[in-house]
Amino acid sequence: MKLIAVLVAFLAAVLQAPAQTTVEDTSAGEVVITIDQFGVGNEIRPGSWGGLQITLDYAGDQPKAAVAVWRIPDADGDIVRWRRTITLNPGAARAATVWLYADLSIRTDTGSISYVEVYEALDPAAGSSQARLGELLAVRPITPGGVVDKDSEVIGVIDSRHFGLDNYRIPQGLYDNFLPTGHALSEVVTGLQPRSIPDRWMGLDRLSVLIWGPSQDRTPGRLTDDQANAIREWVARGGHFVVMLPRVADIWTARTGENPLDQLLPPASAVQVTPVEEAPLSLVRHLLTDDENLARLSGEMHLFTFSGPGLATKRPGELVRPAETVPLMTDRLGRHVAIQRAYGTGTVSVLGLDFDSAAVRAESLPDADVFWNRVLGRRYHAPTVAERRALEEAARAATGIVAETTCFSTRMFPTASLSPARRRQACCWRCWSSRPIGFSPDPAPGERCGIASCTNTPGWRFC
Fold first, then answer.
1. Burial class, 232, CB count within 10 angstroms (exposed 0-12 / middle 13-18 / buried 19+)
2. Which end of the chain, N or C, is surrounded by fewer C-beta atoms within 10 Å?
């Protein structure tokens, strides 16, 4: 009986405890918490590691040892506290920027609430995981800014341009949950800066590919040692790092010690890089596009060619051994203009084509399935947005369906000539593609399909 009484008292205490989501935001006192990024590029992927970049402004008089805590539920609903020890210094000019990392639940979405807390560290020498927590200095509730599909591949670009990678994206309102010509969906995150790179590999975990573009204002020399180590370890764990050499490529090719990512590149003694000024675009057109309308693509492009004893010659089907460098693309003269090497269990690609060429930018090149498929190891067709819309309109015409825009994402207007079952299927296929729900009753000819006409019935499988 005593045991039952204890259990009853315990359950009553738990049920009367305040909810986690009622914590007040106290980040405007001695310590002010600013959220810089929730995930690289302000997007996260459920089921992956996520990085949270915060800035802490401290209004005290003396430096103070503190512990930054990210309190977040795990996949089982238990609360996990991911911690990092820091030193707070007075003054806005000395604000502390901190990255925190958490293993995100597969159920994470834009409504998921977690908390950033800052405590005084009573014994900072004990380290992040062992330091005892003192006074709570600030707390701030946060929610993700953007969440990509858990099955999507994410490509990060340290540049403001997408270089044709947009063809891998799915336009709004088209194929919401699948890619008809490929496998996993691809999300492309552009506009990344060196300062937005996490300082641990876990922050890059959601990326499958990281592309360093040719912009001169985004050089690897701006990386800290921790950021460079994070990129190297992420590649070694299976990431694909792509370098697009800029016209002035000294920081990537000179090997002066100013580039903290030198270790990812082939040894200078094994592979030599030679600039080629103003090469005719006709030499590399086959690498950029297969559009017959551009068969006589004119203009010039700055190239880099790769040669040397470190370039291994591989026959189709042969595997690349660790540390070996192989040619990836060759121009019409037989010169290697792109190379690739293994690094750990990951891959490093170096591209010697100058995409700042006026002719290339004017024609919106390269085409993803011609150029990027070679780099990323893909084999499927990546139609342009216009091509995809034309394909979908043709499919609708073949079934007698005309579309506007969404029953979630598209409102379908069935024609009177369709049978009730076909009208029902046409009306709700968009709903079904978003989640496994069915439909009832049959819509009348010309009637809009809305959420009310979709219900949880076994018939959803008919879609």
1. buried
2. N
Whether pLDDT at 438 is above 70? no
H or E segment at 362?
A: helix 358-362
* Secondary structure class of 306 (helix, strand, coil): strand
Q: Cβ–Cβ contacts within 10 Å for residue 399, how many?
A: 14
At 35, which helix (H) or strand (E)? strand 31-38
Judge whether 209 and 240 are in contact, CB under 8 Å.
yes
pTM above 0.90, yes or no: no
Residue 140 class from Cβ within 10 Å (0-12 exposed, 13-18 middle, 19+ buried)? buried
- Per residue in 210-234, pLDDT (tens digit) is 999 998 888 898 999 999 999 999 9
- Given a contact cutoff of 8 angstroms between Cβ atoms, the answer to whether 227 and 99 are in contact is no
Tens-digit pLDDT profile for residues 355-365: 887 778 777 78
How large is the C-alpha radius of gyration of the chain? 27
pLDDT at site 330: 93
Q: How far is CA 445 from CA 118, 130, 158, 419, 452, in A?
A: 60, 67, 50, 10, 16
Q: How far apart are CA 69 and CA 43, in angstroms?
A: 20
Distance CA 255, CA 265 (A): 10
- Domain architecture of the chain: domains with CATH: 23-142 (2.60.40.10), 153-376 (3.40.50), 400-462 (no CATH)
Question: In whole angstroms, what is the distance from residue 142 CA to residue 114 CA?
Answer: 5
What's the pLDDT tens digit per position in 74-92? Answer: 888 889 999 999 999 987 6
